[in-house]
Amino acid sequence: MTEQTAPPVRVERDGDVAVVVLDNPPLNLFTPAVFQALDAAVAELVALTDPQRPDRARAVLFEARGKVVSGGVDVTFFRDIAEGPDPVGRGGELWAQLLRVAQAVEDLPVPTVFAAHGLTLTAAFELSLACDILLAGEKASFGLVEIVVGLTPSMGGPQRLAERAGAARARELIFTGERYPAAVLERWNVVNRVLPDEGFAEAARVYARQVAAGPTLAHAATKRLVATSVREGARAADALVSEVSGALFASDDLRGAVRSFLTEGPGTATYSGR
Fold first, then answer.
1. Cystine design at 155: which of 62, 122, 126, 248 (Cβ 3.0–4.6 Å)?
2. How far is CA 216 from CA 49, 73, 251, 254, 271, in A?
3. Of the candidates 215, 210, 214, 222, the residue with the CA atom closest to the CA atom of residue 251
4. How far is the C-alpha of 66 from the C-alpha of 147, rounded, in Å?
5. Cis peptide before 7 (omega within 30 of 0)
6. pLDDT tens track for 166-192
7. Closest Cα to residue 191, out of 87, 79, 114, 245?
């Protein structure tokens, strides 16, 4: 009997946190099978974070096994598209699929955290930019190095990098194809926090558990307002406040937190995500 192997991308649970694990040794390269597994994992996340689900996940953490987060995309995949029939059509279909994945991650109604402990190239870096929070180990490094095969990053990386670091920095990083250390990208506002390498994996789990324990509906409102402001302007976000923030007054979390504040003081409330 053939031994059943785990998928290269899978979803595990750590209490209220859904953990997406990239595990395709030795370099966690993105192959067609990895992209397919990622697509399935993100569909699973959509179901797991559904507000109507009794056991919903209240945060998502992306992490990788092995020494590197990812060495990038298996270039033979690009060769097969470029040298096969209808390269333009097949290339366009690939990017459309990967952008749907990135957008689905962005649209999850819970905080999303990406933990980068080592080298993080191309598709993995682009996936991290679709997350709300990017945590990096001290020795982590990042690159959108697609110029080595004549490509521009096309899983949403350039535009999301520009959102975080500005257009000039996005062009610089992609035009050079260089690898940038975590400390530099923290200064550029791409990386949210650089954490010590020792104990990094557990520190990232602790961070994810912390945001999962918060007021989940309020976090979803925050995500929607921030995304709208970035892409449509502050006034467009203002127009949503009555709808998204007004609804919070009907939540169990707000009612319980207000009671806790008035009777026990600030910082004593606990949340159920409802």
1. 126
2. 10, 34, 10, 10, 8
3. 215
4. 26
5. no
6. 999 999 999 999 999 999 999 999 999
7. 114
